[in-house]
Design a protein that fits this description.
Helices cover about 35% and strands about 30% of the residues. It has helices at about 15-25, 70-85, 100-105, 120-135, 160-170, 210-220, and strands at about 5-10, 30-40, 45, 50-55, 65-70, 90, 110-115, 140-150, 175-180, 185-195, 195-205, 230. The strands form 2 sheets. The protein has an 8-stranded mixed β-sheet with strand order 3-4-2-1-5-6-7-12, sandwiched between helices. The chain has a 4-stranded mixed β-sheet with strand order 9-8-10-11, with helices on one face. The radius of gyration is 19 Å and the shape is globular. It starts with a strand and ends in a 6-residue tail after the last strand. The model has no long low-confidence stretch (mean pLDDT about 95).
Length: about 240
């Protein structure tokens, strides 16, 4: 790689954190992990990546972009570090408080930021299609059906709610249904219905790596951008 983007992975022991590290090691992502941060640390170096505990965050080496898939209680620290270092932040941490949302918006006046409930590039395109369909089909019923594995607790999913927000921006009023079954990675159906006809817009995920690849795609394109809040669709 020529001048790869230097990544800090925050929430390194989670499913997404592990996928990010593996993909940067095994694929040409344009990114290299310079440090991994988790709440607790065992080995100090894993597969050549220095490991840091959350309490040691201030001591991580220089990085271009932090990719954060952690918990709300760790969000303030990584946002503060990115501000202090002038680095970009890509976050998929959910459950942020109103105060944290405000801090995130304020930080966008200083550094480039991205937040998404789903980093699939296909879902980013689906958002655009849903908004466009809602805008040109006033008065049609809008229903969103999402399916996930049986262990997923939240319903509707965060992705379904953000798709609903896209529909709302186009003037539709979405309704939601949730299915929890087996090992479904993630399926989202947005349906527009009128008398005698129906349009279905569907995204199906069959491999969880798509979410990590999407986050790396965004991180590689966020480096060097002007301060601001970016959507995945802005960086396709």
């Amino acid at each position: 790689m020529t001048n790869p983007v230097r990544l800090l992975v925050h929430g390194a022991n989670g499913r997404m954190g592990q996928s990010l590290q593996r993909l940067c090691r095994d694929e040409d992502t344009g990114c290299t992990v310079v440090a991994a941060v988790s709440r607790k640390v065992g080995a100090r170096v894993v597969d050549g990546i220095p490991q840091f505990a959350a309490s040691e965050l201030a001591g991580v080496p220089a990085f271009d972009v932090a990719v954060d898939f952690s918990l709300p209680e760790g969000f303030d620290a990584i946002l503060g570090l990115c501000l202090a270092r002038g680095a970009a932040l890509v976050s998929g941490t959910t459950g942020l408080s109103a105060a944290q949302e405000t801090d995130f918006a304020d930080a966008a006046t200083h550094i480039p930021l991205a937040w998404a409930s789903n980093y699939s590039l296909g879902v980013a395109v689906l958002h655009d299609l849903v908004e466009r369909a809602a805008r040109v089909l006033p008065g049609w019923d809008c229903d969103i059906v999402e399916s996930h594995h049986a262990r997923k607790r939240d319903a509707p999913s965060g992705t379904a709610l953000t798709l609903g927000a896209s529909a709302g921006q186009g003037g539709a009023t979405p309704h939601y249904a949730s299915i929890r079954a087996g090992d479904i990675v993630g399926e989202h159906l947005v349906q527009f219905t009128a008398a005698g006809e129906r349009i279905e817009l569907v995204h199906r995920a069959t491999n969880r790596d798509i979410f990590a690849r999407g986050a790396l795609h965004v991180a590689a394109r966020l480096k060097g951008r002007d301060a601001g809040r970016y959507r995945v669709a802005d960086l396709l």
